[in-house]
Amino acid sequence: MKITSGTKELYVPLEQVKNGECFRLHDKLYLKTDWDSVTGIHCIDLANGETYDFMLSAVVEPVVTEVKVVE
Is 0.70 surpassed by the pTM of this model? Predict the structure, then answer.
């Protein structure tokens, strides 16, 4: 699977990232899938497909836009 993306220098709180959008955190690219107030933000590491949960107080990071997944 090949992933290409365009970026823009837009910084927002992580909880403002919409489901289906990607974001960069600690030099890794994640896809946000869902969130809830108990377990935080659910996301997938696009490098290895593993799922992670981040709390809503996570550090503000740039949003990655226009992500295209090419099989």
Answer: no
